[in-house]
Amino acid sequence: MTELRNAWTGASALLFDLDGVLTPTAVVHEQAWQELFEDYLIETGHSHGYQQSDYFDHIDGKPRFDGVRDFLASRGIKLPEGPTDDSPTNETVQGLGNRKNVIFNKIVDTRGVEPYPGSLKFINAALEQGLQVAVVSSSRNAPAVLIASGLAHHFEVVVDGQVAAAAGLPGKPDPATFAYAASLLGVPTEECIVVEDAVAGVQAGSRGHFHAVIGVDRGAGHQSLFDAGATQVVDDLNELL
Ligand SMILES: [Mg+2]
Description:
It is built from eleven helices and six strands. By secondary structure, it is α/β, with parallel strands linked by helices. Strand 2 (132-136), helix 7 (142-148) and strand 3 (157-159) form a beta-alpha-beta unit. The chain starts with a helix and ends in a 7-residue tail after the last strand. Bound molecules: magnesium ion.
């Protein structure tokens, strides 16, 4: 941890993305999206089926309904928006987003969630060094995932999809949610390090005048994360200990 402090003297807080950075739930989100859109494209008779790259190209890191809209747009599909509490069975942007949430929760309930061991060590080391920490997630499931993974007590400040919507903040790749978390911690953005695994999240960090942006490569690729503006890319946060 001494190396971290030496490398980033002047940083006093870490702003962590959740899914894919602290918990392997990015994989669960990816599976839930795949199940949603594979079935949807088949049901609606579209010949251009869902591919794994669709997740990284159109969905990863974005707020849920932006992901639905952007994926559908990639297939030339435009659906009515629907009310936010629209039934998961309805063929609307909100309905499909809510259907994805049902699939996600079903998978989490069935399997449980363990944090990445390297990330847990990294959080503990950062706290020992006196750094402040916050979670900044596009997901509205962040509080549930933090509780399920046993990480909730570390994070007083959690800016999730729900908080962002209530505060009227645009989602990643806009830096607003990270800047909001910094303000809640009472730390200038220039003293915060953003830790992200998604291209949209790294872009948010890069656009927001933060101290540094650490990209964690869980499948996006080192080059994509550097291209998005990461100042450093690792495969696991234990590399920084
Ligand atoms: Mg993520």
